[in-house]
């Protein structure tokens, strides 16, 4: 999960990238999956359009504000960064031809709510309980605003509110404000885990992968119209102007039950050190970010903060039995490294941040919703995002475990376990509680800039 | 009083490998419709996950299919772990005639779900640069290398679900069986060392 924080790396790297003849079209690709701006606040607005003309008029006035990959990397003075995406229903409402709509992949056409069984969003996570109208077929578009600070976000919020009112026929179904949580010197979420530790590097951006992160990934794994890990782009939605330089993103609003999480740590660890170890076993990293494979017995915050060392490990050779990082720990499921195949076809880019106020230590849960509202970007939702949810997060028999799901992120209902390998006898925690609940989600298509202009210029009956 | 059919075993406690089990499967191939990524999820039975794919072969392709047997035999001899990804127990390849037509049956027993098996299989074919024997079958999509959903659709459309499956050691995975055999060998070595 990406948390809004100061950026160290990708923004600067992009300004120095090499220009190659067949390189990515940075001027046309929305910045969202390419560059991470230094934002400390954000706002997501979920929109519905009463009619095609309303949507097109709204989009026409907004296109010039949408940040491209090249623009976001070129100025340090920008204070806000805008991204726009559409659901399949949204594209339909815009008047995209039925023959064109039919060329989008099945899972995108159905939308995230209809894929609940595949994703494991069942029980308390079911779309019936989602908030903000996210499960509604009337959800047509999202505007993601990243802002340098809360003041800038509020300025933009007011500006967009006035603009929407002026357009007519455009309604904000719901909105979510996000803010980084203190301390601000490193990215982390409400449970206290350091975040943004492992992100794929895209070939052609000039960014060097950190040690242990593997080679750069072909751009076609994230942006339509480019070669992917299997070869040339194939089977893209039509017309090409609509799909080229676009990406799919899966949005998830995930509530974090901080009180339940801290109660669990206390119930399974008598001392603060033991509680930290349990927290680390759930994640596969200490909350500092230091990986258990490299430091299984005690935390090493210096290692956790060191981007050149904290990803430099594998599982098959360094920790095959999970004595350091349990086989079912969150990071071992979400990125099995050398213990899974076709890894380069499962990579995803994460963006997003924390919402809700932090819960101070030692305070009982106040019942206020807090969590992570994140996006997973890819070129194929079924092959990348849905695979990760279906197989890595929720398959009880992952790595032959038999009755486990991802302890942080999987669909938990008190009937699954967590096995912590240990000599001479492993420890098994039975009946893991749910630390998170999915409160909403949706599939969006993030078109390139030319595609946005194409959408805005559509006419009825064309 | 009518008896209620036992529910699909879903928890490990019901999956006791010491007690042989049989499972009768409804005509649809599943007990209740659960959507997987590419279609209905077929259940894990006492005989693990599996498929029985039956398709008519293109006229004159029988020899090509039989020759493929030798190709796979050599590939596995050269690289025994080539198919490890697929978490297989067994594969069986059969050719048989109905009237003047020849049909191909491909039966597999494995430990990952149907969709994952098929995705992984396509990736393996690409990785090793081999064509699939399926190219000799009628209705097989020509663009299968770049169109995984079409490959999966073909496999699903030609899947004939079992109506009964039996396991002498139900639900044991290939990895568990290999671990048990390894343990037996280790104990045997230990006893040798104790002499």
Give a short summary of the structure.
The complex is a heterodimer of chains A (462) and B (195). Chain A has two domains: 10-254 and 441-456, no CATH class; 255-343 and 375-439, no CATH class.
What features would you describe in this structure?
The complex is a heterodimer of chains A (462) and B (195). By secondary structure, chain A is α+β, with helices and mostly antiparallel strands. Chain A has 15 helices and 10 strands. In chain A, the strands form 3 sheets. A 4-stranded antiparallel β-sheet of chain A has the order 2-3-1-4. In chain A, strands 6-7-5-10 form a 4-stranded antiparallel β-sheet. In chain A, strands 8-9 form a two-stranded antiparallel ribbon. Chain A is globular. Chain B has a single domain, classed as Dimeric alpha+beta barrel (Alpha-Beta Plaits, 2-Layer Sandwich). In chain B, 32% of the residues lie in helices and 19% in strands. Chain B is globular. The N terminus of chain B is likely disordered. The chains are: A alpha+beta (462), B alpha+beta (195). Chains A and B meet through helix 14 of A and helix 2 of B.
- CATH topology of chain B, what is it called? Alpha-Beta Plaits
The pair of chains with the biggest contact is: A-B, 26 and 24 residues
State the distance separating the first and last CA atoms of chain B: 62 Å
Summarize the amount of helix of chain A as a percent range.
25-40%
Low-confidence stretches of chain A: 1-21
Mean pLDDT of chain A: 92
User: Mean pLDDT across all residues of chain B, rounded?
Assistant: 87
Q: How many domains in all of chain A?
A: 2
Order of helices and strands of chain A: HEHHEHHHHEHEHEHHHHEEHEEEH
Assembly status: heterodimer
What's the arrangement of strands in the largest beta sheet of chain B? Answer: 2-4-3
The CATH superfamily of chain B appears as: Dimeric alpha+beta barrel
**In total, how many beta strands of chain B?**
5
């Amino acid at each position: 999960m990406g948390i809004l924080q100061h950026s160290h790396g990708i923004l600067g790297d992009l300004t120095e990238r090499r220009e190659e003849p067949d390189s990515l079209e940075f001027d046309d690709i929305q910045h969202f999956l390419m560059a991470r701006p230094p934002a400390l606040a954000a706002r997501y607005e979920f929109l519905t359009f009463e009619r095609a003309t309303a949507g097109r008029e709204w989009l026409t006035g907004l296109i010039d504000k949408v940040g491209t990959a090249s623009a976001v990397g070129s100025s340090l003075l920008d204070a806000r960064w805008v991204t726009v995406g559409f659901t399949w229903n949204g594209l339909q409402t815009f008047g995209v031809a039925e023959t064109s709509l039919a060329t989008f992949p099945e899972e995108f056409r159905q939308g995230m709510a209809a894929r609940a069984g595949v994703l494991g969003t069942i029980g308390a996570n079911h779309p019936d309980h989602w908030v903000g109208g996210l499960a509604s077929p009337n959800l047509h578009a999202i505007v993601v605003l990243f802002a340098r600070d809360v003041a800038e976000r509020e300025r933009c919020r007011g500006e967009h509110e006035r603009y929407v009112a002026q357009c007519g026929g455009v309604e904000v179904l719901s909105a979510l404000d996000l803010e980084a949580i203190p301390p601000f010197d490193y990215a982390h979420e409400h449970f206290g885990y350091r975040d943004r530790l492992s992100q794929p590097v895209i070939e052609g951006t000039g960014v060097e992968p950190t040690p242990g992160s593997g080679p750069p990934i072909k751009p076609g794994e994230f942006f339509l119209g480019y070669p992917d890990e299997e070869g040339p782009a194939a089977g893209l939605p039509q017309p090409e102007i609509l799909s080229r330089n676009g990406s799919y993103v899966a949005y998830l609003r995930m509530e974090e039950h901080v009180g339940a999480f801290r109660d669990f740590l206390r119930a399974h660890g008598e001392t603060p050190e033991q509680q930290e170890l349990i927290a680390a076993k759930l994640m596969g990293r200490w909350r500092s970010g230091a990986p258990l494979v490299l430091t299984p017995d005690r935390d090493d915050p210096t290692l956790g903060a060191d981007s050149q060392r904290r990803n430099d490990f594998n599982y098959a050779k360094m920790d095959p039995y999970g004595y350091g990082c349990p086989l079912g720990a969150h990071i071992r499921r979400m990125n099995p490294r050398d213990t899974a195949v076709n890894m380069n076809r499962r990579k995803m880019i994460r963006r997003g941040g924390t919402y809700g106020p932090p819960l101070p230590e030692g305070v009982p849960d106040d019942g206020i919703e807090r969590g992570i509202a994140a996006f997973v970007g890819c070129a194929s939702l079924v092959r990348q995002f849905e695979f990760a949810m279906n197989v890595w997060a929720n398959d009880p028999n992952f790595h032959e475990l038999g009755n486990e799901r991802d302890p942080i992120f999987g669909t938990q209902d008190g009937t699954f376990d967590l096995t912590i390998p240990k000599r001479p006898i492993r420890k098994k925690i039975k009946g893991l509680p749910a630390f998170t609940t999915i409160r909403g989600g949706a599939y969006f298509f993030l078109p390139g800039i030319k595609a946005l202009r194409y959408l805005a210029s559509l006419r009825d009956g064309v | 009083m009518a008896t209620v059919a036992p529910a699909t075993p879903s928890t490990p406690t019901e999956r006791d490998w010491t007690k042989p089990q049989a499972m009768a499967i409804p005509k649809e191939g599943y007990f209740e419709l659960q959507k997987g990524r590419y279609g209905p999820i077929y259940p894990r039975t006492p005989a693990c996950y599996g498929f029985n794919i039956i398709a008519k072969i293109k006229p004159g392709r029988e020899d090509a299919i039989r020759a493929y047997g030798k190709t796979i035999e050599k590939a596995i001899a050269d690289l025994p772990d080539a198919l490890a990804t697929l978490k297989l127990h067994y594969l069986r390849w059969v050719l048989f005639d109905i009237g003047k037509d020849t049909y191909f049956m491909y039966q597999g027993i494995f430990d990952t779900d149907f969709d994952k098996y098929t995705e992984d299989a396509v990736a393996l074919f690409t990785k090793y640069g081999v064509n699939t024997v399926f190219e000799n079958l009628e209705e097989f999509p020509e663009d299968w290398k770049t169109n995984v959903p079409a490959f999966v659709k073909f496999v699903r459309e030609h899947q004939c679900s079992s109506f009964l499956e039996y396991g002498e050691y139900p639900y044991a995975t290939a990895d568990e069986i290999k671990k048990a055999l390894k343990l037996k060998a280790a104990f045997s070595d230990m006893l040798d060392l104790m002499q």
